[in-house]
Amino acid sequence: MSEVGKSVKSLVSSQKHGVLAVTDRQTHIPYGALVNYACDHKGLPIFLFSALARHTQALTLDPAASLLVSELPSHGDVLTGMRTSIMGQCVRLGQDQAAKDAYLALHPYAAGYAEFGDFSFWRLEPTLIHTVAGFGRIATLPAAEVFGV
After folding, report:
1. DSSP per residue, the chain
2. How crowded is residue 121: how many other Cβ atoms within 10 Å of its Cβ?
3. Contact 1/9 with Cβ under 8 angstroms?
4. 8 Å CB contact between 86 and 12
5. Reported confidence tier of residue 137, pLDDT bands at 50, 70, 90
6. How far is CA 143 from CA 6, 63, 112, 126, 140, in A?
7. How far is 117 from 51, CA to CA, in rounded Å?
């Protein structure tokens, strides 16, 4: 794994929320939603989504998605921090126990609604990663270089 790949994987595993971009099912316009996530054993983002959520409804018609994860600096310009877009397809996992365990370890307050019938776990299966790690430090990597998939 390259140094950039290691940095991306470290960033994604160190955060717990990001912006998920999907294609809205009604307007066909890109829609971004703030979401919580955790990482599975490979470091891939997993989510807990309600079937009622606009982004979930979009994913049922078009699973293409991108998750933007960033490291916000303590002060100054937010664009100086590292940020990564993980592009790929979201796959519904249902009530997968390993996903549930990983997600609830990071988001224990979600335990109450994780059992609701309209909630299910999803995983972002990446194909391409685009990262900006500061001025002039920009890279686009295949998912295998970051996640080994």
Report:
1. --HHHHHHHHHHHH--EEEEEEE-TTT-SEEEEEEE-EE-TTS-EEEEEETTSHHHHHHHH--EEEEEEE---SSS-GGGS-EEEEEEEEEEEES-HHHHHHHHHH-GGGHHHHTSTTEEEEEEEEEEEEEE-STT-EEEEEHHHHH--
2. 23
3. yes
4. yes
5. confident
6. 12, 17, 33, 6, 9
7. 9
* Topology (CATH level 3) of domain 3-147: Pnp Oxidase; Chain A (2.30.110)
Distance from CA of residue 98 to its chain's centroid? 17
> Residue 5: what residue type?
G
Q: Could you state, in order of their start, the residue ranges of all structural domains in the chain?
A: 3-147
97-112, pLDDT tens digit by residue? 999 999 999 999 999 9
| CA 119 centroid distance within chain | 17
pTM over 0.90, yes/no? yes
Closest CA relative to residue 5, chosen from 86, 80, 64, 72 = 86
Bridge-based pairing of strands 119-132 and 17-23 is unpaired
